[in-house]
Write a structure and sequence with these properties.
The complex is a heterodimer. Chain A is an alpha+beta fold. Helices cover about 35% and strands about 25% of the residues of chain A. Chain A contains 11 helices and 12 strands. In chain A, strands 1, 2, 3, 4, 5, 6, 7, 8, 9, 10, 11 and 12 form a 12-stranded mixed β-sheet that branches. Chain B has 11 helices and 12 strands. Chain B is globular and about 60 Å long. In chain B, α2 packs antiparallel against α8 and α6 crosses α9. In chain B, β8 and β9 form a beta hairpin. In chain B, strands 1, 2, 3, 4, 5, 6, 7, 8, 9, 10, 11 and 12 form a 12-stranded mixed β-sheet that branches. The longest helix of chain B is centred in the first third of the chain and has 14 residues. The chains are: A alpha+beta, B alpha+beta. Chains A and B meet through α4, β6, α10 and β12 of A and β6 and β12 of B.
């Protein structure tokens, strides 16, 4: 708890910390559930931190990714990156006892060796990013032909994008669109609203949606941002109208909306081939991210994943 | 035309392909009948190749990185520029691989997108190696050594240790075996295997043996280094464990770096994930570079039964 109050002031003073590691983000998405943080100090100043969420289920202690949270894990201030071996060893020495650890790390961490030395496993996943949102001309030039055709289609249909949509509208549309594909919503409205309200009150999030001329939503997105990145946190499209260009128009308008608010845009991409191709068609580049896991005892790994009790951040793509 | 003949031509046309991919190297480390290659050809032009080493064990067909090779896997023509096109070619090559029960390879250092493998059910994990770039800048290289290494090199000079290049392969092998036995480690290579590699390296002028000895000519530390146009690699090295405090290993490496500056651009320690070895290599102040290890088995549980240091693979 002591660490948490120190961490709160660290978050307030260090604008490098990704939005997903901010104390208020974790308070919002975990809504009363237990989370804590390790901090690493040099000359009495915090230079690195590692927040973690502890989920207790079936007598097991799971350190996993909270909902809505693409990345977590260790954070090291950029000017102390060279100290990463020492810092990661410190975090490992001070981590609580757990049965299962599964995290996607912040992208600026590119070396997991100390975790390897302690028996963790790793793999590389990718996200799709568009850099330099200031350069509108370049962004438009980089759109592939099929996206440009989508914009023409959307224009013909007289689609338009609105921002600052009520979270309940987004939630209901999300449920409706998932139902068409026989899927169920995986998050609770109260948590979503709390997160949304906290992002909006800090001017770090909004809901955008593309409507037709009759006022019906075709595609909606919950976007959040910090100093460096905007994130496509949730995206929902009516799958019966997927080819009408609404989601392409929505993403284009979001990219323009974020100009001046942040520097780059992260689609929070998936490893799926189809989704990768869709995001790539906006001219995005791939960005690596490390996923780290360990289970204790080791055979728990498969059981935990099969049982589905690790409610990691996920997005449904329609 | 035979794929290997076409591959030979492909390597000649792409000047930057590393030594580990050269047909003569594959002939040497795999044996001419134990490797093959699949090719991606469009309009009579080779766009990519995937050489592979195959081995049969207990009735299983294994596609693995051969002994003495740090890396293997697909190669894309230097003419292909975009990552998307590279990715498409790699996907084509993966589809063409022969059936296997187990594949485990380290991919080329320049390959930083393993998704074509992921889409075909492979698993990946990131490994690291230490690389000293720009061997011409000897002043900067030595400045980047840790203070311990600098002290050890001074000590080696005070002890009048001597650096020798081109020691005979017999002498190299004898000491290599002896130093490993002192560490209670088993030697995985036969004399003939090492001799064969050494002879071929000499013919190509792409490798050399080195040693550091004391003033009584006792050899304390040895290394076998290979190189191509872009980089050099520490293929084998060992030090008498009783003599490691003389600074012989640090002295050997610092002299090797000087020797190599005329031959190539960088030096790759062919680093280990082992903590002690990694920390030692890292103390020479190079860059830490990552490369991907890829694994797949059929049936899937086979990879858990094969002891190949693959315990760190996880599923996404």
């Amino acid at each position: 708890m002591k660490n948490k109050s120190i961490y709160k002031s660290f978050c307030q003073n260090c604008d490098e910390i990704p939005i997903f590691s901010q104390y208020w983000w974790l308070d919002s998405v975990l809504d009363g559930h237990e989370w804590d943080v390790l901090v690493y100090e040099m000359n009495n100043n915090i230079v690195a931190s590692m927040p973690y969420y502890i989920k207790k289920k079936l007598g097991l202690k799971l350190l996993i990714q909270p909902k809505f949270t693409q990345k977590l894990g260790p954070f090291i201030m950029s000017k102390y990156q060279n100290e990463y071996l020492k810092i990661l060893e410190y975090f490992l020495d001070n981590m609580p006892i757990f049965n299962f650890y599964s995290q996607n790390w912040n992208s600026n961490l590119i070396n997991w060796l100390p975790f390897y030395w302690r028996g963790y496993g790793q793999t590389t996943s990718y996200s799709s990013v568009i850099e330099n949102l200031d350069d509108h001309n370049l962004i438009v030039d980089n759109f592939k032909q099929n996206r440009k055709q989508d914009f023409t289609k959307a224009q013909r249909e007289k689609f338009f994008t609105v921002f600052d949509i009520d979270p309940l509208i987004f939630y209901n549309e999300h449920i409706k669109n998932l139902k068409i594909k026989n899927n169920k919503i995986f998050y609770n409205f109260d948590v979503f609203k709390k997160l949304h309200d906290n992002c909006v009150s800090r001017s770090q999030g909004t809901i955008a949606g593309t409507k037709d001329k009759y006022g019906n939503f075709h595609s909606l997105a919950f976007i959040v941002w910090d100093k460096n990145y905007g994130y496509l946190n949730q995206l929902t499209t009516n799958s019966t109208k997927i080819k009408n260009g609404s989601s392409s128009l929505l993403i284009k308008d979001i990219l323009f909306y974020l100009r001046g608010k942040t520097k780059n845009f992260d689609f929070e991409g998936s490893m799926s081939h189809g989704i990768y191709n869709f995001y790539r068609s906006f001219g995005s580049k791939s960005k690596q991210m490390m996923s780290i896991k360990k289970s204790n005892p080791s055979f728990l790994n498969k059981l935990i994943e099969i049982s589905g009790i690790t409610s990691k951040h996920k997005k449904n793509y329609e | 035309m035979n794929n290997k003949i076409l591959y030979d031509e492909f390597c000649k046309n792409n000047k930057d392909f590393l030594i580990f991919y050269q047909p003569w190297w594959l002939d040497t480390v795999c044996g001419p009948n134990n490797w093959d290659v699949v090719l991606c050809i469009k309009n009579k032009e080779i766009l990519g190749a995937f050489p592979y080493f195959f081995k049969k064990k207990f009735g299983l067909k294994l596609l693995i990185t051969p002994k003495f090779s740090q890396i293997m896997g697909p190669l894309v023509s230097e003419k292909i520029e975009t990552n998307t096109d590279k990715s498409k070619i790699i996907s084509e090559l993966i589809k063409m691989l022969p059936k296997f029960n187990y594949l485990s390879i380290n991919l080329n250092y320049t390959l930083n997108d393993w998704r074509p493998f992921y889409w075909k059910g492979y698993l990946q994990s990131t490994n690291y190696t230490c690389i000293i770039e720009n061997l011409c800048d000897e002043k900067k290289i030595f400045n980047n050594f840790s203070s311990t290494n600098k002290r050890m090199i001074k000590k080696a000079n005070l002890n009048e240790l001597r650096f020798n290049s081109d020691i005979t392969i017999e002498e190299f092998y004898k000491h290599y075996k002896f130093f490993l036995s002192k560490r209670k480690k088993v030697l995985f290579y036969s004399y003939n295997e090492i001799k064969n590699i050494f002879q071929n390296l000499k013919k190509k002028n792409q490798g050399c043996t080195f040693s550091v000895s004391d003033k009584n000519n006792n050899i304390l530390s040895i290394a076998l280094i290979i190189w191509d146009k872009k980089s050099s690699y520490m293929l084998l090295n060992s030090t008498d464990p009783a003599m490691k405090n003389t600074g012989c290993t640090q002295y050997l490496i610092s002299e090797i770096l000087l020797f190599l500056k005329e031959k190539t651009k960088s030096f790759n320690f062919e680093g280990s994930m082992n903590k002690e070895i990694f920390n030692f290599y890292n103390s020479f102040g190079g860059n830490i570079s990552s490369y991907y290890k890829i694994v797949k088995s059929d049936p899937f549980y086979l990879r858990h039964l094969i002891n190949d240091n693959n315990q760190n693979f996880i599923e996404i």
